[in-house]
Write a structure and sequence with these properties.
This protein has ten helices and no strands. It has 191 residues and is mostly helical. Helix 3 crosses helix 8 and helix 5 packs across helix 6. The longest helix has 17 residues. The radius of gyration is 17 Å and the shape is globular. It starts with 21 loop residues before the first helix and ends in a 6-residue tail after the last helix. It binds zinc ion. Zinc ion binds next to loops. It comes from Periplaneta americana (American cockroach). Keywords: Coiled coil.
Length: 191
């Protein structure tokens, strides 16, 4: 299993007087420079990036967060009663769990010897601990988070359709994308 090296907080911002995002102060052991770079990766839809931005900065008002700020009486998920955190929403709530399983299965197609810790670090942190097939790995994680946090139905066909449509849109772009397209084919979305 790949070890994650931690970056010192002071190396996370190159310029002086740059305000450190609150989330970086809260979780200083994440490799934030990698995470932000991945979030901004070219050829990933802006809508996906926006959702990932809100997810990573934890500015989505889950019931747990609203409860912590005295905005509601209970931290329980309105759908299932578990504590409603972001992790609950993307991995565990009702049918969302089947999409989490589907996303892990897709990741294994790209990266056959990956393990639990790699799946978490990739799909939940946007920091895959591998340089191989970097684009499609980050693309899949971004699409997964976007789907989980914006679409209420959590249907596998709908999730795969979203990925297929976006992959098809990239196919029509110029041939500078050939590496990207090669990586996307590892997902075998059209089978
Ligand atoms: Zn729930």
């Amino acid at each position: 299993m790949t070890r994650i090296k931690t970056q010192r907080l002071s190396t996370l911002t190159s310029k002086k007087n740059v305000q450190i995002p609150r989330i970086v102060e809260k979780f200083p052991n994440q490799r934030w420079r990698n995470i932000w770079r991945n979030m901004h990766m070219a050829n990933i839809p802006n809508a996906w990036k926006t959702t990932v931005y809100c997810y990573l900065n934890q500015i989505i008002p889950t019931e747990e967060k609203r409860h912590r700020h005295n905005l509601t009486d209970s931290p329980a998920c309105k759908k299932c009663g578990w504590t409603d955190t972001l992790k609950h929403r993307v991995t565990n709530c009702g049918a969302a769990k089947t999409i989490w399983e589907a996303a892990k299965a897709l990741l294994v197609k790209i990266w056959p010897d990956s393990q639990l810790q790699d799946w978490f670090q990739t799909l939940l942190v946007l920091d895959p601990p591998t340089k191989q097939n970097k684009f499609v790995t980050v693309w899949l994680a971004s699409g997964f988070l976007h789907y989980q946090l914006t679409k209420p139905l959590h249907k596998i066909e709908e999730f795969l359709h979203m990925l297929k449509e976006e992959a098809a849109r990239l196919e029509t772009k110029d041939d500078k994308l050939s590496q990207i397209l090669k990586e996307l084919r590892l997902l075998e979305l059209n089978r």
